[in-house]
Amino acid sequence: MSRFEVTETFHGVAFPGHLHDQESLQRAVTFPFQDTDILIVSYPKSGTTWMQQMVTLISNRGDPHVSQTVPNWARAPWLEHHYSAELVQTLSRPRVMTTHLSHDMLGHTLQGSKAKVIYVSRNPKDTVVSFYHFHKMANFLPDGGSFQEFLNQFLEGTVQFGSWFDHFKGWTSQLGAMTNLLHVTYEEMSMNPHGAIKRVSSFLQCPLVEDEVNSCVRHCSFSSMKDNKMINYTLVSHDILDQSKGSFMRRGKVGDWRNMFTEEHNQQFDKVLLEKLKGCSIEFVWEEVEEKETHRETHH
Ligand code: PPS
Asked: Which of 71, 24, 72, 64 is nearest to 47 (CA)?
């Protein structure tokens, strides 16, 4: 049964029934973490797959073999997906897992555990654009409607996987409290892949020599991942992900929202962003990175 039309509501958040059921969601929030576990956490379309590739490569000291022979969902399964229970049993230590769940849902499960958590975030404007395009090709997601309609739902937090703002605030508010939590942004991975890999590898206590870092950078690049069927989702059947309507590795750019947003969209977004992230002490690197990227592109 494909369950394309089914939505599972869990803790007030909608999840696609194709990948989730109540049992798998419940299992995720009571998951017995081991201290050696590595958990990649993200809101969808924030650089999840990129981090899965990065962590695989770092764990293999830059050797691409695993990243070219094992699909990403098998090497770093989503805790909450219904097919993951068996996969998790097959993982060797340190186990690498992935989740889109909010801190509200998973925080208490992680409490007291030394599992290493990597939170990946991305400018929500680029996230909403990427998510909108993904809705067109993913047959297990509802019709996104027009971009304006989708944007409204994203800002209201009624899209699948819930509110970006709550997700971001929930996890980043733990940065002082959880010593085993690392925050990495899509923008950092884009601007400074070398530095991001070194930061992640030292957090994972897996220091690499320069050649190993360089190999990770190479196999983490957008062009390399776009051509790697173990990470580009072309292994998924077309009735689930319709590759004629788009590709998972779509643009891979910082600031692509500018090609989609009108001035009105931007004002609408900024108003909500300001309201929702009031009191949030995270420094946003988005605009600064965008400027540097634009500068880099016009000078190459
Ligand atoms: S998902 O479905 O939640 O797992 O999606 P996620 O992996 O979080 O996000 C997909 C977007 O990440 C882009 N991506 C990359 N960008 C740059 N470099 C690399 N190596 C890379 N890998 C994935 C992917 O293209 C999606 O973004 P958009 O903007 O749609 O291109």
From this structure: 72
Question: Sign of torsion, CA 134 137 140 145?
Answer: positive
Mean pLDDT of 199-204: 98
Residue 142: strand, helix, or coil: coil
CA distance 111 to 298: 47
Residue 253 CA to ligand 1 center (angstroms) comes to 9
pLDDT at position 2: 73
Residues with Cβ < 8 Å from 195, sequence gap 6 or more?
188
pTM for this one?
Answer: 0.96
82: CB partners within 8 A, 6+ apart: 19, 20, 21, 23, 24
Candidate list 18, 81, 82, 100, residue with the active-site label? 100
User: Given a cut of 80, is residue 160 above it in pLDDT?
Assistant: yes
Three-state DSSP state, 37: coil
Cβ(54) – ligand 1 distance below 6 Å: no
For ligand 1, whether the C-beta of 16 sits within 6 Å is: no
Q: Which residues pair with 21 in a beta bridge?
A: none
CA distances for 199 relative to 13, 35, 292, angstroms:
32, 20, 21
Confirm whether 265 is a catalytic residue. no
Please give the number of the atom of ligand 1 that sits closest to the Cα of 120.
8
Q: Where do the domains of the chain lie?
A: 7-293
Which listed CATH number (3.90.1140.10, 3.40.50.360, 3.40.50.300, 3.40.50.410) goes with 7-293?
Answer: 3.40.50.300
Q: How far apart are CA 174 and CA 180, in angstroms?
A: 10
E-assigned strand segments in the chain:
7-10, 13-16, 38-42, 96-99, 116-121, 181-185
Q: Quote the CA–CA distance of 163 and 161 in Å, as a whole number.
A: 7
**What distance in angstroms lies between residue 49's CA and the mean position of ligand 1's atoms?**
6
